[in-house]
UniProtKB/TrEMBL annotation:
It comes from the Eukaryota. The keyword Hydrolase does not apply. GO terms for cellular component: endomembrane system; lysosomal membrane. GO terms for biological process: lysosome organization; regulation of intracellular pH. It is found in: Endomembrane system; Lysosome membrane. It is a multi-pass membrane protein. SUPFAM superfamilies: MFS general substrate transporter. Belongs to the battenin family. This is Battenin. The chain crosses the membrane at residues 27-47, 59-78, 167-191, 203-231, 252-276. Pfam families: CLN3 (PF02487). Keywords: Lysosome, Membrane, Transmembrane, Transmembrane helix.
């Protein structure tokens, strides 16, 4: 629970904070999120894989606790913070604080103004909600019921297959989250992504029910495609909002965008319970 709360607060905050940096920053942030997913899922799968480190899940998690401390170190000691941030003058109107306030490029906006600014972005946020609802219903609801024997599962133990599904999914998200740094595409694709993700989810649903696929390589490919779609939708939405939103509303709308995929994941949790009950 605390990890989920920390992830939610941290993800929203860091994305809003990225609005104070150059236009490529949201894509770089989403790429970093994708890389973190790859590293985390690969390390956990490798550390717990019987053919590799063969550690217990508890030991693997404890070893990976080094990453939160690394993140804090980079944020507080390495990151070069911009000078146009809004801050409170806690010690009164000192000369330094007044000079700092004079340099602020973003003016304060009311809550009503911020809520009104959400409406134009809904056409990009709603597709992302659907994409992540379908994506996490598949990942957390269907894939756990898909297992293959050793002959058709690359020799992986049944308990290990789910972990490698997650790693391959993370590879897919990283590829598209990073590719936007080099190759851009039209926002019209955002309306196609929900259809692709829902179709993929339907295939996984029937595979979980009837186990008709002959080899694990096929669902591996399907979950990789799921990662590609989710990563592309996320990074393109963040990038578009960052480039087209006025500076006054940019931190707020990027924060709202970061909660859109979370809301889709929230819906996926309830949908998964309903599907299998």
């Amino acid at each position: 629970m605390t990890a989920s709360i920390s992830n939610g607060i941290g993800g929203t905050t860091i994305l809003s904070y990225s609005s104070h940096f150059p236009d490529s920053t949201p894509v770089a942030v989403s790429s970093g999120m994708g890389a973190a997913g790859i590293v985390g899922s690969f390390l956990y799968a490798s550390l717990t894989e019987p053919h590799l480190a063969n550690l217990s899940p508890k030991t693997a998690i404890l070893l990976m606790l080094v990453f939160p401390f690394t993140l804090a170190t980079f944020y507080w000691l390495v990151l070069d913070h911009p000078s146009n941030l809004m801050k409170k003058c806690l010690k009164g109107p000192t000369e330094d604080c007044q000079e700092y306030t004079a340099r602020q490029a973003i003016k304060s906006t009311s809550l009503i103004e911020k809520i009104g600014a959400i409406k134009p972005s809904l056409r990009f946020l709603l597709p992302m909600i659907v994409v992540y609802m379908a994506e996490y219903t598949t990942n957390q609801g269907f894939i756990q019921f898909i297992v293959f024997d050793c002959a058709n599962g690359f020799g992986l133990a049944k308990i290990s297959q789910y972990r490698w599904f997650q790693f391959i999914y993370r590879v897919g998200t990283f590829v598209t989250k990073t590719s936007l740094l080099f190759i851009d595409f039209s926002t019209n694709w955002l309306y196609l992504f929900p259809l692709l993700q829902l179709s993929n989810g339907v295939l996984f649903y029937f595979e979980a029910l009837f186990a008709f696929l002959p080899h694990i390589s096929l669902p591996f490919l399907m979950v990789f495609i799921s990662g590609l779609v989710g990563g592309a939708c996320l990074s393109k939405t963040y990038n578009h909002i960052h480039k087209t939103t006025p500076a006054d509303f940019k931190p707020f709308l990027l924060g709202v965008a970061s909660t859109s995929d979370t809301f889709g994941i929230f819906l996926a949790a309830f949908l998964s319970i309903w599907v299998w009950c």
